[in-house]
Design goal:
By secondary structure, this protein is an all-beta fold. It is built from two helices and 25 strands. Pfam families: Polysacc_lyase.
């Protein structure tokens, strides 16, 4: 452990053995409960500026003085079989059969009891193992900033194999805004850095770098009014498991190089494993995207489709049907998810990241035309979800996801 500050806490990890957690944490908004945060949290006892905390799990006594929460032997371990840098990392594991702790299903570390300043930096590296982090349509938090009670006012979450930020709404702090940060790349380390101006007013801001690339530049409130500065937690908190099961019964991830500091540190002090791209690559104010009907037989485009649009094969003149994404010219790739209506709801039947123009739901043959093969959609109802990205790999979101429904006859 590389701790810059002196931290005190009544419980700590002993060596690198299995950890039993104690203490409390916040409940998510779905719980409608308020739990008093334990006073047994790590307290900053020095006014040293710059990097205030850094944990790489390489020392003899990792996480000493850091408050941890979980209920089972498997909840958190420091392991030597996977690491971002060095030889060790923290392994978080949560199962739907686990006992609740602090009124919730969690495996978390309380890194900072209270942000010492409004302007703060945070960072960590995370890897999602494919066999232990399967697709789940319900969400969970992996990093959260929470105040005295209620759900976190700001958090990094996953759902449907996507990463996204959830922050209180600019118009109503009882509601949420969500911002997509791109897909989870499983079995590969991803390094995040956050620069946050903690505020309940319009001057608040959240900047995020993913693997050295800036993916978010958000302006607006990120704290509840009148509740004091937030604390910071990392790990897994899946609130829906407090009440019911979901698509999966286990969530596990590894974290390494957990750090935070005040405004005297820089991005280069936090991001260690990435080639930094300090340019603002976030595409601001993108043009409104549209979906157009595409005739892939003669490579022509029809009008834009609206929710519930009916598309007749007889009028199209072919079953070589596709959808064309008319997007901002700065967009480098477009991801399509196509769902077909069944007796049990909509089922995902097709997914494609198209990394070259023209952006088509079924792609093209590489020569810029609309050819997509010989698979034709059955008559019926469909829903398509579309996400735009500022890079070819689909990591830097442009605007929000959009979706529409249509019928084929």
């Amino acid at each position: 452990m590389k701790s810059i500050t002196n931290l005190t806490c009544k419980s700590f990890l002993a060596g690198i053995t299995t950890v039993f957690f104690a203490s409390s944490c916040q409940l998510d908004e779905s719980q409608q409960l308020e739990v008093q945060e334990s006073t047994e949290v790590a307290e900053l006892t020095t006014k040293l500026s710059g990097l205030l905390f850094s944990e790489d799990f390489e020392g003899d006594d990792p996480l000493r003085g850091v408050h941890t929460q979980g209920a089972e032997d498997h909840s958190l371990r420091v392991v030597s079989w996977r690491a971002f840098e060095g030889k060790k990392s923290a392994f978080f594991q949560l199962k739907s059969s686990d006992k609740m702790i602090a009124n919730g299903m969690r495996s978390e570390i309380l890194v900072s009891s209270e942000a010492p300043d409004q302007d703060m930096w945070y960072s960590f590296a995370v890897i999602f193992p494919e066999d232990l982090y399967e697709y789940d349509k319900s969400n969970e938090s992996i990093s959260q900033w929470r105040q005295n009670s209620g759900g976190p006012s700001l958090s990094l979450r996953t759902a449907k194999d996507e990463l996204y930020v959830r922050v209180i709404s600019k118009d109503n702090e009882k509601e949420w805004e969500t911002i997509n940060l791109g897909p989870i790349i499983k079995n590969k380390w991803t390094e995040f850095a956050f620069r946050i101006h903690h505020s309940s007013g319009d001057e608040g801001s959240v900047e995020i770098w993913r693997d050295g690339n800036k993916v978010l530049n958000y302006k607006g409130p990120n704290m509840y009014k009148g509740m004091g500065m937030p604390h910071w937690k990392v790990g897994i908190y899946k609130s829906i498991w407090n009440k019911k099961k979901t698509d999966t019964d286990v969530r596990a991830l590894y974290m390494d190089n957990i750090r935070y500091g005040d405004n005297n540190v820089s991005l280069a002090d936090l991001v260690t494993g990435s080639v930094l791209n300090l340019a603002d690559v976030v595409i601001m104010n993108p043009e409104e995207p549209k979906l157009l009907v595409a005739n892939a037989e003669n490579e022509t485009l029809g009008g834009s489709i609206h929710p519930g649009e009916i598309i007749y094969y007889s009028r199209l003149g072919t079953k070589k049907f596709s959808l064309f994404a008319d997007v901002d010219k700065r967009v480098e790739s477009v991801h399509f998810d196509l769902y077909q209506e069944t007796n049990n709801g909509y089922k995902l039947i097709h997914s494609l990241l198209d990394s070259s123009f023209p952006f088509l739901m079924f792609g093209d043959n590489g020569n810029g035309n609309f050819y997509f093969g010989n698979s034709f959609l059955e008559e019926g109802r469909y829903r398509v979800e579309v996400a735009c990205y500022g890079d070819e790999k689909g990591l830097i979101p442009v605007g929000e996801k959009f979706s529409t429904t249509f019928k084929l006859y």
